[in-house]
Write a structure and sequence with these properties.
Distance between the termini: 37 Å
Low-confidence stretches: none
Strand content: 15-25%
Structural class: alpha/beta
Strand order of the largest sheet: 3-2-1-4-5-6-7-8
Shape: globular
Order of helices and strands: HEHEHEEHEEEHHHHEH
Number of helices: 9
Helix content: 25-40%
Largest sheet: 8 strands, mixed
Amino acid sequence: MTPRPASAPVGTVTRGTTNPNRLRRMDRWIAAAHGAELRRAADPLAVDLGYGAAPWTALELLHRLRTTAPRTRVAGVEIDPARVASARPYEREGLVFLRGGFEIPVPGSPVLVRAANVLRQYDEGEVAGVWRRLCARLAPADPAAGSRGGLLVEGTCDEIGRRHVWVALGPEGPRTVTFATRLGSLDRPSDLAERLPKALIHRNVPGEPVHAFLRDFDRAWAAAAPYASYGARQRWIRAVRDLTADWPVTDGPARWRQGEVTVRWGALAPRGW
């Protein structure tokens, strides 16, 4: 892969914290939700933006996406030149590491950009501009071919990937918010609030939609307590099923069983967004 002409990378160096298998929940969701787009794309390029101090997440993304879209290529992009240099010995067929930032220094238009734990370190007021810039780099939609275009997945997780919340955006802007967790570690759904992405984490206050959603989720979880005798998975499924009466949940039991629930962005968007 030949990178785009050199220019100053856009963004700032993050802490670079990373661990093997940290992004497994996000990766599994991407493979399920976006695998068809990757399979039909002429050039199924995915970008791991801000992969951190070690290349593990980019290697894992390549492996997981190729199980559903075997032609997928991955470019790991980091703004810190030392991190790029240390990652390059791990390059292989279908995987390269490049220096860059939000400009995404790859030729063409990626079918996927994953940015995990990157915007957490930016100000809330910067998020919308970064989203617009990254969405503008995505492969465009082609309705005639049944394509909705590329996907940006931006979110935050804990250090070992037990709890994760992300926003999925297309070329047109934000589409959905997904909450994903290891159910055995969960006391109540609002435990996920600490992993809300930057666009939402400061909005978990009364009067904001995301606060109302987590409040209702906790209530549904409490009402589903009798199902706990069948396991945390059955309790989660029942709670999510009850949520669908009032919230636009976009997925179904197959994903709920994974400890996930996906809701339309418009229902959770901050006031005045």
